[in-house]
Amino acid sequence: MTFYEKQTDPSSPMHWLGDMQADYLYPNGKAGDKLFKHIKENDTFLASKCINCSKIFFPPRLYCEDCFVEILEKDWFEIPSTGKIRLHTIVTINTYGEKLNEPKMIALIDIDNTDGALLGIIKTDNIDENLIGRKVEAVFKSKNQREGTLKDILYFKMR
Amino acid sequence: MNRVAVIGGGMTLFRRRLLETGKELSFLAAKMAMEDSGIEKKDLDMVVMGSAPDAFDGIHMKGENLLDGAAATNKPYVRLFNGGGTGVFAPIAGWWHVASGVADTVLVVCEEKMSSCFPHPQTAFQHIWDPILDRPLHPNLVWLFAMEMNRYMTMHNIKKEDIALVAVKNKRNAVGHPSAQLPDEKITVEDVLNSEIMAWPVQRLDISPPSDGASALILCSEDRAKQYTDDPIFIDGVGWNIDSTMWTNRDLYFPRYVANAAKMAYKMADIHDPKKEIDFAEPYDPFDYKELHHLEGLLLCDKGEAPILTREGVTQRDGKLPVCPSGGLLGVGNPIAATMGQKVCELYWQLSGKAGKRQIPTDPQVGVGQAWGDIMQMGTVIVMRRG
């Protein structure tokens, strides 16, 4: 068996430069479509409830994954866009290893009146404070700028 | 080895674009199969998912993404994929879960959402090729299959008209299918021959469309099946086989990998003369010539004989050997893995008399389904039988 020497210059062997086209268009899905159409026009959220186990899904779903039953239109309802921070981290460098201009707090937020949670950015004046358990509320883009995606929620602020 | 029964099937609409997410499509198909069989999530021991390249959905590890829509949360779960072969290979995997005795009741779900890949799923297929020997010429599947079709036509002196008859038959058969994307009761051979030439000899109507959709099956042991039905349908033979990825070194007019897979399945099902013992077939038909190619690979006729049987009407729904009574991929659509709906669910529906307007009138007892995938090298075969 012959082992070739380790290559430190990737372009030194004869090669062909390939690329990988991968562009995607993701519709929001049936449940997602209903949620994001609502968020586009309102500063509140929607949830859906399984009539079998009473679990309240946020983000709302078409079905309960535990009972495996469909959740019907009548079991959807409006909820406030508020919650509590379950856990958080403070990000200081990006995916490419570059330092961010200012640290960013990312949190998982338990949404009030539901069994669900949402990933969000927390805006706070005191980023070094432990904010677990603190009450927050969503801050949305102005209505004329909303596009029906998760990015319509700008961040969460302290209540 | 335990005998394995099929007791439920389900299939969503097949369309070029559906609003539902992959999870939602999986849920809808799985729920239909569970309602058809009377099985609930708590009765399922294990779940098998079939779905083609992650590149279609643009979600790496999409098996994990799909599982909550496939009743698999907190259950033993596996996702399989061998390109177009998946639609028959996923139920084969479900079969070995039960045949081995590891599970009593298994849900098999096959999902594909090709429309996410934008602007066209062909862009995902650009990366299946060998990066050194194929990709610098930017091959796509249409021109590869055009060459294979030409080879098949040349070897057996087959006319384009005879191949077009397959597209006409299948798109007409699809008229009775509630999921069908491209049914057409008025289509003629002339329509196919006059459609846009894409890569000669392949024309627009020779090819199945890209689709979104899902399908599902409930498999269980013979003992368990008796609790749910008096008339179970059994999977009596399975086979799979793969040829070299060096496609340039193959003859390309006879799919020997399909023949190898078919021999394996027939032997298991104790079938000695498939031409006499198989009542109907669902060979994989993403292109019209592939139905013919695969009928020969399945040893249901001699090499070069499939176009003659087609011309003589033998493969019509009321013929001696009905072929693609579902409407196939050409008529119902081609969400890669989810074509389990035409290739395996259809065997179950036909054998249990549940095929509605598509029902074969001659009371079939034994059917064979087949899929084909990877770089035209994978054959997956299933033989199903009544009672």
Brief description of this entry?
The complex is a heterodimer of chains A (159) and B (387). By secondary structure, chain A is mostly beta strands. Helix content of chain A is 8%, strand content 38%.
C-alpha Rg of chain A, in Å?
Answer: 22 Å
Radius of gyration of chain B: 19 Å
Helix-strand pattern of chain B, N to C? Answer: EHEHHEHEEHHHHEEEHEHHEHHHHEE
Name the CATH superfamily classification of chain B: Thiolase/Chalcone synthase
- Quaternary structure annotation: heterodimer
CATH superfamily of chain A: Nucleic acid-binding proteins
The separation of the N and C termini of chain B measures 17 Å
Strand order of the largest sheet of chain B: 3-2-4-8-1-9-12-11-10
Query: What is the CA-CA span between the terminal residues of chain A?
Result: 67 Å
What is the CATH architecture annotation of chain B? Answer: 3-Layer(aba) Sandwich
**What's the SSE pattern of chain A?**
EHEEEEEEEEEE
Q: Mind telling me which CATH architecture of chain A this is?
A: Beta Barrel
- Return the domain count of chain B: 1
What features would you describe in this structure?
- The complex is a heterodimer of chains A (159) and B (387).
- Chain A contains one helix and eleven strands.
- Chain A is mainly beta.
- A five-stranded mixed beta barrel of chain A has the order 7-8-9-11-10. Chain A has a three-stranded antiparallel sheet with strand order 3-2-6, with helices on one face.
- The model of chain A has no long low-confidence stretch (mean pLDDT 94).
- By secondary structure, chain B is an alpha/beta fold.
- Chain B has one domain: Thiolase/Chalcone synthase (Peroxisomal Thiolase, Chain A, domain 1, 3-Layer(aba) Sandwich).
- Helix content of chain B is 35%, strand content 19%.
- Chain B has 15 helices and twelve strands.
- Chain B has a nine-stranded mixed sheet with strand order 3-2-4-8-1-9-12-11-10. In chain B, strands 6-7 form a two-stranded antiparallel sheet.
- In chain B, α4 crosses α15 and α7 packs across α12.
- Chain B starts with a strand and ends with a strand.
- The mean pLDDT of chain B is 96.
- The interface between A and B is medium-sized, with 23 and 31 residues.
- β1 of chain A pairs antiparallel with β5 of chain B.
